[in-house]
Amino acid sequence: MTPPTFLPLAEDPAPERRDAARNRDAVLGAALRLVDEQGPCAVTMDDIAASAGVGKATVFRRFGSRAGLMTAVLDHTEAEWQAAVISGPPPLGPGAAPMDRLVAFGRTRMEQTLAHAELIEAAGSTTTRNRAAYSFIAMHVRHLLRELDVRGDVPLLATALLAPLEAVVLRQQVEVEGLSTERIAAAWEDVVRRVVAG
Amino acid sequence: MTPPTFLPLAEDPAPERRDAARNRDAVLGAALRLVDEQGPCAVTMDDIAASAGVGKATVFRRFGSRAGLMTAVLDHTEAEWQAAVISGPPPLGPGAAPMDRLVAFGRTRMEQTLAHAELIEAAGSTTTRNRAAYSFIAMHVRHLLRELDVRGDVPLLATALLAPLEAVVLRQQVEVEGLSTERIAAAWEDVVRRVVAG
């Protein structure tokens, strides 16, 4: 009699796949930590490989290129921020008044964009990711404007409120004009309150 | 006796310099016409040289590169629009009510940016030009907001109103979301009126 054969279980990946996943996590973790400490431009692939305890070839095998790894870092931090918006504590997450959520959204989005401006450049132009991230923030702001009973062309009012949070606008203000993020955030909140007051 | 020598007069350039200036004008004129007719991506340096009645080497001698010529085209159209803002007919130029001027500013700036989005890409990243153009529009909007007695952080309110007119925002709306420029302009006017009403 031949022994019974089993279909492979999804929960039981081959050792090669487990190693690959472990390496991927180690590299991504090292990249997140080093980018946070040194900024994306200063971090080398050698540093990341050494910190993750893998060979540089493994880094390239798992992420394709430096830009690919920076995209993964960006996607990870974006996903964490989105999770905080959807289900994190108030005022950013649910449970606060819509205006308080909107103000918290603007402040944290601004910090996120400024912190990641270099990373966005290092990741290169990945239109698909940009569109997915943009769809999320546009849906969220429209939802809050409707909760605030704003009348008019709500989708386009949302776009107009999101425009000052674009990297190109924020970087001009911070890096060229030398404005503080506190002043920029206060002005954004003022615009939001004027638009909502209608 | 030797004949008297004269210093060259500024009004009497050497024939080479007159030719150079004439060629430059002919090339720029041809480039403006062809970019307007065909869009900047479709226009070749051969087309421009042939239309200007000069050799291709002359085009490169006068403008350095394709990007250099596209920058000159962009500078020329930007200067024409700025002249219309400063001293053209109302409502864009002086003589209209500040709110009418602001609305006309937004509409023409939007058209300008959308028409030139490809040209801005063809000209490459020329930060100095961008900053000069940005300074002009920022000064103009601040001036009109002050004329409208807007209270608050006027420079940053101006920035917030200019942000939806950035190429990256307008192209997303027109090219990705398929929105009409009429709807975008109407929403911008709505935001302006809400911000001014305070």
From TrEMBL, chains A, B:
Query: What GO MF terms are annotated?
Result: DNA-binding transcription factor activity; transcription cis-regulatory region binding
Organism encoding this protein: Nocardioides daedukensis
Database matches in Pfam families: TetR_N
DNA-binding positions are 44-63
Protein name in the entry: AcrR family transcriptional regulator
The keyword Phosphoprotein appears for this protein: no
* InterPro entries found in the cross-reference section: Homeodomain-like_sf, HTH-type_TetR-like_transc_reg, HTH_TetR
Q: Does Ribonucleoprotein show up as a keyword for this record?
A: no
Q: Which UniProt keywords apply?
A: DNA-binding
Domain HTH tetR-type residue range list: 21-81
